[in-house]
Design a protein that fits this description.
Elements (H helix, E strand, L loop, with lengths): L2 H10 L5 E3 L16 H6 L5 E5 L5 H9 L4 E6 L2 H13 L5 E5 L14 E7 L15 H7 L3 E11 L2 H14 L3 E5 L10 H7 L4 H8 L5 E7 L17 H10 L6
Parallel strand pairs: 1-4, 2-3, 2-5, 3-4, 5-6
Antiparallel strand pairs: 6-8, 7-8
The chain binds S-adenosylmethionine (SAM).
Length: about 260
């Protein structure tokens, strides 16, 4: 490892609220806190909520501020981003926040059955070309249900028509109960003030997309812990990969 990288790792050791398992080392080393986050780290019996693909951890930290009686864990593979949230949580003395640096593909190695109450997916990469990497695909749902309580809630907040439509088809195909869904969050009706406050937390990516005039979509659904699961077998009738890339570059929403 280069001197620079070593220094960076040494620096990261200061963050007692960050757990790092970015590499395949977890294949051979069982994660000692699996099933024990409450007693070993948080030292309370409060529910646990995850933000998967948390980036800088805005949701994790802001939700922790709003709900001191809930434990929040942000997960991402990119360490450099989550230091922002980790630093903020430490500076603000937030004890109900942790970060886990790993690939979400192996997320079930870190949490035991029924250990997690809710999952937030905030501005996840739509992964149009690769269904296996999409965070709402059956591959990931199968992993989530191994540690989510039965009927635990999954929140999806996104700028992507593609991911939103795909996830909608996923809930329909598998009869996951949808609790709320809107293609235009900031003009949606029927949301109470508390919910709106939660949903108005803006991540780095969200602020970028809003500046470019994109509608923000949001849905929340329940994920049952048992039953067969299948990929939606319909074509996604929205933008193709190239127009999506152009949108992201130009800021013109070609996907409406
Ligand atoms: C578009 S960014 C959104 C970040 C943040 N939620 C936000 O709204 O600003 C997607 C994030 O998901 C993370 N990510 C995507 N796939 C992942 C995976 N399989 N494992 C871990 N992190 C992943 C990326 O590293 C990135 O930080």
């Amino acid at each position: 490892m280069s001197k620079g990288k070593l220094a960076k790792f040494a620096d990261m050791a200061r963050y007692e609220n960050v757990f790092q398992y970015p590499y395949s080392v977890v294949e051979n080393v069982p994660f000692e806190m699996k099933g024990h986050w409450r007693d070993m780290y948080f030292h309370n019996d409060n529910p646990i909520v995850l933000e998967l693909g948390c980036g800088k951890g805005e949701y994790t930290v802001e939700l922790a501020r709003l709900y001191p009686d809930v434990n929040f864990i942000g997960v991402d593979i990119k360490g450099a981003r989550m230091w922002t949230g980790a630093t903020q949580a430490l500076n603000d003395g937030l004890k109900n926040v942790a970060f886990l640096r790993t690939n979400i593909e192996i997320i079930d190695r870190f949490f035991g059955p029924d250990e997690v109450q809710e999952i937030w997916l905030t501005f996840s990469d739509p992964q149009m070309k690769n269904v296996r990497k999409r965070l709402t695909s059956t591959y990931f749902m199968e992993r989530y249900r191994r540690f989510l309580v039965d009927g635990g809630i999954v929140h999806v907040k996104t700028d992507s028509n593609f991911l939103f439509t795909y996830t909608t088809y996923m809930t329909e195909r598998n009869a996951f109960p949808v609790l709320f869904s809107t293609t235009d969050l900031y003009h949606a009706e029927g949301l109470d003030v508390d919910t709106m406050r939660i949903l108005s937390i803006q991540t780095y990516y969200e602020s970028q997309w809003i500046e470019r005039g994109l509608n923000i979509k949001y849905m929340k659904f329940r994920l049952p812990s048992a039953g067969d699961m299948a990929e939606p077998d319909v074509e996604i009738p929205v933008d193709d990969y190239r127009s999506y890339k152009r949108t992201r570059r130009s800021g013109v929403d070609m996907r409406k």
